[in-house]
Write a structure and sequence with these properties.
The chain has three domains: 4-178, no CATH class; 182-260, OB fold (Dihydrolipoamide Acetyltransferase, E2P) (Beta Barrel); 263-430, no CATH class. The protein has nine helices and 19 strands. The protein has helices spanning 36-57, 102-121, 167-175, 220-226, 263-272, 289-302, 373-383, 403-415, 424-430, and strands spanning 4-6, 15-17, 20-22, 71-79, 84-93, 151-155, 162-166, 180-195, 200-205, 210-214, 233-243, 248-260, 311-314, 320-323, 326-330, 333-337, 341-345, 350-357, 360-368. The chain is elongated and about 95 Å long. The protein starts with a strand and ends in a 5-residue tail after the last helix.
Length: 435
């Protein structure tokens, strides 16, 4: 007889179970495709446990009967806006002598499902003999795609008990068996070194830990160009092994890999691109988005690795100010270290560099960024201080208060009658600048 789809109700497939996915990703009533891996993992656990239950009832048997291994789950439909897939039990099997009746198979699958729900609901309770400890390893896959504040809810078939599987519950279940567990995550840092013979690179993460990351041949060029560049940020979406304290132990599989050059500059420009009109106490023109993106690309591609990073501040007229000075205090006295700045005119993509000096006119030079970014970068190399000690501490200055920001605030205070400062020159004198 040809293979056929069989169910306990003929051509109709009664719903076996409906897991409910909850969390922000599911609030728009759509089911992300990556949860299919969770349903597949649930099925693997369901089948493995059902086989164990059958063998407990039939200790004289060493092999499963025909037909048992052909029972599987299928998605028949969706409820509650696609967050509750309706799963049914079906089989595609040849009906031959010695095959186990489908109805008998369903009974073991039903027992298996209820045991899974009860295990999730009470992970600290003693394991019954019906649930072998080794099968807890399936929770390394079941629920692995869930993010923080996401969960999948399951009910026993009589709906008497509900269990919620989330990140913490899954971790607890796996750690009952082992000292580590797996989860999907994203790690980021800069590429410290690479071993192209072993197809790996070492990623230094912010907390001074390292991860050895597998790489493909397609990633070679991107990795090679970023080795040792601390301001290039590598983002790795992966499956990783963590210990019970959530310390990263190993990356076992990479799902996606990307590098953003001069990440701190790129991130600052992303922030500037999100400004709304009137961003400064009801005043302030929004920078031109197209030119902002163009400048961000130019600087991310060409800003020298070893130069100090500037403060990048929007101006009220919709342009930008780049500063390399430091706002601070000498005791109770405000002070401003350095003093180089560049006025960026986004409307014509030009830059005017100034370096004020005591008792003389500051160095000034005009650049056409659209046609000659190379001359601008070369000029910066001669006039901007080098990064100290190879650290990234200066990166925080990208969105730190700048002289322009301080001046705008003080002048706004003056208009409101809260300050005697009348002009930018007053602020500069207050910070010890002659010009």
């Amino acid at each position: 007889m040809e293979d056929s789809v069989v169910s306990s109700a003929g051509s109709a497939h009664p719903i076996f179970v409906q897991p409910k996915f909850t969390g922000r990703r599911f609030d728009n009533h759509a089911l992300p495709v990556d949860v299919a891996a969770d349903l597949k993992a649930y099925q693997a656990l369901l089948v493995a446990l059902a086989k164990h239950l059958f063998l407990l009832d039939n200790p004289d048997r060493k092999k499963m009967p025909r037909g048992f291994g052909d029972v599987h789950l299928a998605i028949q439909g969706m409820d509650d806006g696609s967050t509750r897939p309706a799963l049914v039990l079906v089989t595609v099997a040849s009906v031959t002598a010695g095959s186990m009746p489908f109805e008998d198979c369903v009974d073991y699958f039903s027992q298996s499902h209820d045991l899974i729900v009860k295990r999730i609901a009470a992970p600290d309770s003693p394991l019954p003999k019906e649930f072998p400890k080794k099968l807890l390893s399936h929770f390394n896959q079941f629920g692995r795609s869930l993010r923080e504040n996401e969960a999948v809810e399951l009910q026993t078939l009589d709906r008497a008990q509900t269990a919620v599987l989330n990140h913490e519950m899954r971790k607890k279940l796996v750690l009952t068996l082992d000292e580590s567990y797996e989860r999907e995550t994203e790690i980021s840092g800069y590429i410290w070194e690479a071993d192209f013979e072993k197809y790996t690179f070492k990623l230094r993460i912010d907390n001074d830990t390292y991860a050895i990351v597998p790489m493909s041949e397609e990633d070679y060029d991107q990795v090679r160009q970023s080795i040792g560049h601390k301001r290039d940020r590598a983002f790795v979406k992966c499956i990783a092994v963590y210990d019970s304290h959530d310390h990263l132990k190993k990356v076992i599989e990479v799902e996606s890999f990307d590098v953003i050059k001069n990440y701190y500059i790129a991130k600052r420009f992303d922030t500037l691109g999100q400004l709304d009109g009137g961003w400064c106490d009801g005043r302030g023109i929004v920078p031109d988005v197209a030119n902002l993106k163009a400048l961000a690309r130019m600087l991310a591609e060409s800003y020298p690795e070893h130069l100090c990073l500037p403060t990048i501040t929007p101006t009220l007229d919709g342009n930008l100010l780049m500063e390399w000075g430091t706002i601070g205090h000498a005791g109770a006295t405000p002070c401003y270290g350095g003093g180089q700045w560049v006025n960026i005119n986004l409307s014509n993509m030009s830059a005017d560099f100034q370096y004020p000096r005591a008792n003389e006119e500051g160095v000034a030079k005009h650049f056409d960024l659209h046609n000659d970014i190379e001359s601008f970068i070369a000029f910066l190399l001669d006039h901007i201080p080098k990064e100290a000690n190879g650290t990234l501490s200066e990166a925080m200055a990208l969105d730190a208060p700048s002289l322009y920001t301080i001046a705008a605030e003080r002048l706004a205070d003056h208009e409101a009658g809260r300050s005697t400062v009348h002009s930018l020159e007053d602020v500069m004198r207050e910070y010890g600048l002659a010009h």
